[in-house]
């Protein structure tokens, strides 16, 4: 996976009121005066009902459907053709990022706004690359969620400043190779260079070179910091 900025298709970026806006001209324009039909996708009933109550209070919003899973969302998008999908990333049956890709396949012009508890770099970048036009955390104030829905409906991207900064840092950050990730995962388990070499059938020198590469790419001063940063960014998972 490349963090190439071109993949994100963010054009005409400008910062205003602490938010990153960018129009995606590859999407079909909608009429700004029409009502916005919204599909809410979340596996927690309380969240779905709460969002429906909140969004339905807006005069130009119509909640046309609720879905508890990605597969339900795919069915409802085909049936109801909503303008905006407001969805979580962690759901049963299918991961949210995979669902975004599938939704864009069956409805290329649909606007997808992620609303989730997961704010790691990995989730942000993957969701944006998959085709999400906005990314918010669930502790976002109501007025900001409403603003984000209206903006992405009009073809604008909406990302809070703090997330936008991390997004562009991730885009510009050199990606760890598959072998470097394997080495770092073993280091995270407490393996020495010799242990790693034996497990991966490579030389101690090669292990040291991979560890050095991890330190440089993660801007870490030692192995412990490299492991910590990799875990925080969702690059590796520690499994006993």
TrEMBL record:
Residues 169-234 form the HTH luxR-type domain. Residues 37-153 form the Response regulatory domain. One of its GO terms (molecular function) is DNA binding. Keywords: DNA-binding, Phosphoprotein. It comes from the Bacteria. InterPro entries: CheY-like_superfamily, NreC/VraR/RcsB-like_REC, Sig_transdc_resp-reg_C-effctor, Sig_transdc_resp-reg_receiver, Tscrpt_reg_LuxR_C, WalR-like. CDD domains: LuxR_C_like (cd06170), REC_NarL-like (cd17535). GO terms for biological process: phosphorelay signal transduction system; regulation of DNA-templated transcription. SUPFAM superfamilies: C-terminal effector domain of the bipartite response regulators, CheY-like. The modification 4-aspartylphosphate is found at residue 88. SMART domains: HTH_LUXR, REC. This is Two component transcriptional regulator, LuxR family.
């Amino acid at each position: 996976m490349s963090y190439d900025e071109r993949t994100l298709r963010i054009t005409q970026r400008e910062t205003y009121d602490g938010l990153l806006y960018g129009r995606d001209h590859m999407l079909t324009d909608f009429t700004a005066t029409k009502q916005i039909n919204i599909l809410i996708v979340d596996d927690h009933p309380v969240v779905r009902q709460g969002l429906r109550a909140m969004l339905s209070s807006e005069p130009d919003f119509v909640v046309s459907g609720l879905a508890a899973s990605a597969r339900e969302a795919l069915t409802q998008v085909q049936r109801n053709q909503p303008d905006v999908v407001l969805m979580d990333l962690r759901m049963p049956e299918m991961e949210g990022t995979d669902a975004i890709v599938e939704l864009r396949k069956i409805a290329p012009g649909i606007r997808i706004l992620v609303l989730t508890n997961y704010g790691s770099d990995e989730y942000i970048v993957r969701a944006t690359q998959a085709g999400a036009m906005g990314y918010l955390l669930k502790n976002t104030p109501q007025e900001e969620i409403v603003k984000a829905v209206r903006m992405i409906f009009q073809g604008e991207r909406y990302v809070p400043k703090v997330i936008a900064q991390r997004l562009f840092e991730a885009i510009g950050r050199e990606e760890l190779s598959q072998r470097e990730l394997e080495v770092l995962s073993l280091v995270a388990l407490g393996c020495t260079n010799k242990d790693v070499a034996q497990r991966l059938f490579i030389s101690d020198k090669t292990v040291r070179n991979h560890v050095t590469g991890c330190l440089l790419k993660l801007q870490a001063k030692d192995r412990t910091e490299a492991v910590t940063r990799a875990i925080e960014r969702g690059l590796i998972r520690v499994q006993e």
